[in-house]
Amino acid sequence: MLLLYKRLRSVKKKMDVKVKFRNFEEFDQYMDSLGLFHMDMGLGRMEEFVRRWGGKNIFPVIHVVGTNGKGSTSAYLTAIAEQYGLKVGTYVSPHFVSPRERITVNSSMLSEEEWCLTANQVMEIAPDVGLTYFELLTCIALAAFKNNAVDLAVMEAGLGGRYDATNTIDPDLTVFTPIGLDHENILGATISLIAADKADAMRAGGNAVTSVQDEEAMRVLESRAAELGCRFAKSGEMDCVDGLAPSLAGLHQKQNAHLAACAWQLFCEMKGLDFVPEKVRSGVREGFIPGRLQIIRHDDRTFILDGAHNAHAFAALAAELQSRGARPDVIIFSCMKDKKLDEVRATLRSLSDGRLIACGLPEHERAYPYDSLAAFLGEGVLAAADLDQAMSMLGGGDKTVLVCGSLYLLASFYTRFPEYLHK
Known about the structure:
Mean pLDDT: 91
Shape: globular
Number of strands: 14
Distance between the termini: 24 Å
Radius of gyration: 21 Å
Low-confidence stretches: none
């Protein structure tokens, strides 16, 4: 830690960093002013930052792209690399309680002091390029990883691939998790269009590996890889490690863990590292990210927290609950207005014989209005303005509660119970 702060002071002195943010609260307020959901498609601002910052290829990068399973796969890759004794920078999204959750070094958040210093550093490098919310966080991640001299950066794409801020850095390996319908209003209305956007995260002459995909998505990925001359591997055809026992619950997590193991095998081949199956198994056992079929026992209730928010994720959630013989007594559900609810409504209602509560998210203007949501979901669905009201509606017989549909709903839960953000 002492060496880190000496390095940071050296960076500050060398750059004569101006102080825009005197403390983390000021930084947080500035981020709010940018707008969490504001997007301005294009890579020009990020490319300008990277040019001023010092270019690419400062540290190896594994880029994780897809629709479902990105966070889990990133967590497994991070834990595996840590088993090798590497210093690993990890960038994921979204956060639940604080943006500090998005950037970690060896699975530890940066201090508020380091956040402010690094944010000021970024603003000094590029004060006039108009970085958006996600772009600024991506720049802070890159600067923090350079300041901490990481051996590897695991970077999860935010939305899509073609114009995602993380697509500015040329990765050593691109990892594709399952691609499905999501954010259709931005990425396209079909699997093929969405896959084409994400496929542009590949690089000419680069390396990529994919999880099992829908046939349409796989054809698009294969075609783009061939156009770019990118080495393209399929985890479904690889048998690199047996006996994987992922820490995260769900049959789909075995697929995510296998993808991470295959990606790591390819990365080891590229970097001349020994591939040690036991270290991979240990990493998969240790990897953790909250809100992915997380089972919590609080007081006399069991809460099942899952960020399922599209048809593919709900199918995985339904399969896991069925395999466990689990029937929640009540479901608390919310989502954003851009979600195609007709694709998940039947699955959602099939998960429980008990009550369904449509929950509002008053902090988010993009949230589906809870009264309209209740009406759309059908007869007998209750409406709650927020999570506190939904929780107050639970009865003594509601022993198992499924909280799902939006990571922002889970954020409300973790704000109330922050101890469950950690393993």
